Amino acid sequence: MVFLIVYFMEKELAYWAFVFFLISALTDWLDGYLARKCCQITDFGKFMDALADKVLTVGLFVALLALGKLPDWALFLVLLIVTREFLVTGLRLVAAGKGRVLSAEKLGKWKTALQMVTIGLFLMIDLDLSLDFTFQCYKCGEVIFSVATILTVISGSSYLFKNRDVFRDEVEASLHK
Length: 177
Fold this sequence. Notes:
Layout: H1 2-10, H2 14-37, H3 43-66, H4 74-97, H5 106-124, H6 131-162, H7 164-175
């Protein structure tokens, strides 16, 4: 869906970009909800859900930045988000190589939710609604984006710290070779 959303953004079809983003965000939530409710949680699902979230959010943040939809200062925040996501995914891959599955934590889920709200607000700016509404979306988007980035750094640091043994074991194993 990321490619479709970005295509609509680039073609200035804001309505369709927003609709497909909403579908993506809502089906992501519904998938997790149904998996928990029906006791259908799998290790594969845990990993792929987190990866799909990262592809959606990082892809759309990069697209929003490239298309000039984010403020100039957002470049630093997007780089922080991308760095965090690569580090956490790297940690999960190393853990998976050792037969461990690292599930998402509450803080990470809140981070993703705030990132999704941020993206939605910045996509709404191009919907040709009232000027006042557009301005409010932009200002709210800036604030929530800042909060989401702070939460991104905090949740990433916490996740890496809590699972530091995965990297420590990897370093120790490479030293003994």
